């Protein structure tokens, strides 16, 4: 039964296998070009540094930290309603049920 299903769906199976091999093959190979290898090495290095930073900026300079603080203040003034608003946190929403007046259908 399985063989008959595979034979009837042979085109789809071949297409799926071709796509999966086509996607996985470059990932499993080592880069032959030295520029590609350098790029891969830098991405891996950045991934290690960013996981060690705990979600913060990777190797920030004092100038970059000042620029980030200035941008966050500007966004807080423009969208947050004033200074001192934490623009990095997710906003909280409060929905209240509307007051619905009852309708009298009787005359």
Q: How widely separated are the two ends? A: 71 Å
Helix content: 55-70%
Beta-strand portion reads under 5%
| Oligomeric state of the chains present here | single chain
Shape, please? Answer: flat
Query: Main β-sheet: number of strands, strand sense, barrel status?
Result: none
What's the structural blueprint in terms of helices and strands?
Blueprint lengths: L1 H7 L1 H19 L5 H20 L8 H19 L27
Written overview of the protein:
This protein is mainly α and 107 residues long. It contains four helices and no strands.
What brief labels describe this structure?
107 residues; mainly alpha; 4 helices; flat
Summarize the structure.
The chain has 4 helices and no strands. The protein is an all-alpha fold.
